[in-house]
Amino acid sequence: MGRIPEQVVAEIRERADIVSVVARQVTLRKAGSRHWGLCPFHDEKSASFQVHEDKQIFYCFGCGAGGDVFAFRMKQDGLDFPDCVRALARELGIAIPESGSDEGQTSAIYRANDAACTYFRSELRGPNGGSARDYLRERGVTEDLIERFRIGFAPAGWDGLVSHLRRANLSASDAELAGLIARRQTGDGHYDRFRARVVFPISDPSGQISGFGGRAMGDDTPKYLNSPESPVYKKSRVLFGLGQALDAIRERGRVIVVEGYFDLLRRSRRVTRTASGATPRKSFSCSTVTPPDKRRPNARCRSCCPRACACARRFCRWARIPTRCSRSPGSRRCAPASTARSRCSTT
Prior knowledge:
This protein is α+β, with helices and mostly antiparallel strands. The chain folds into three domains: 6-92, DNA Primase, Chain A, CATH 3.90.580; 101-233, DNA primase, catalytic core, N-terminal domain (DNA primase DNAg catalytic core, N-terminal domain, Alpha-Beta Complex), CATH 3.90.980.10; 242-339, no CATH class. Helix content is 37%, strand content 18%. It has helices at 6-15, 18-23, 69-77, 81-92, 101-125, 130-138, 143-148, 160-167, 172-177, 242-252, 261-270, 306-319, 336-339; strands at residues 29-31, 34-37, 49-52, 57-60, 66-67, 152-154, 181-183, 190-192, 197-203, 209-216, 224-226, 254-258, 276-278, 298-302, 323-326. The strands form four sheets. Strands 1-2-3-4-5 form a five-stranded antiparallel sheet. It has a four-stranded antiparallel sheet with strand order 6-9-10-11, with helices on one face. Strands 13-12-14-15 form a four-stranded parallel sheet, sandwiched between helices.
């Protein structure tokens, strides 16, 4: 990605009120020019966390965390500095100049992914989505979960998304790089990569859609089809559902990592206020699951598949998250989402 101009960083620092940013996550009480609350970065019973309105900084007398608005968002959301700046810029409506081809390409891929998500969600609600709606209903996925996780449907046709992106004046080359469409082997043009599948958008911690996962509803192979890696989608750095679970992770200091999309949806429906994340098949979570400080959440992997537990444990060791693994009852080959219907444990 291109370098963010210093004047843009300065404008964001000037316009981003740290009190408002912190107050989204922490209940603050004003005393003079300072605001006090419980520190979001360590457990405490009495408020030692302060936000200085005049100086636009925060500091915790308990754990020593401190800094400006960028430092707070980086620590709270597990972002690096460029991603933090871009997240705040979007919230403030500040445009970041496209200083290089990489930066312009990244923005174009995000736009293509947003347009694809809109298309998939529209298809799920439309006349073509009847079979997908029935399938989701049979799997116990409620309307609330469909909206919350922005689940969609890719119809069986070969060029529905291609036509949608063309009508939106989006580049086919950018959509191809995003893994949304593929070039035809014979002749000119492109075809839809996701077809006849329920589609799950995979977002980064700031909420931007970086890729998709498609699940076949019948016996089609492959059973799961994920976006290929791209400048914005790195399979080792994302978790499906992480953005929806961040508040609960911060509040409870622990995270449950499950194997598949429906395993997460099942827990989200049955277990309230439990932080959950699901790995796209053959990919693992990034360090954003673990707040970048000494207090790290505990992770629990629930699966009946020994290989899936081993994968989750490798990820947790890499992210330095204390882990324990719970195996679902019954056959070693049964699906975790199926056993969760009758028995769903919490940590």
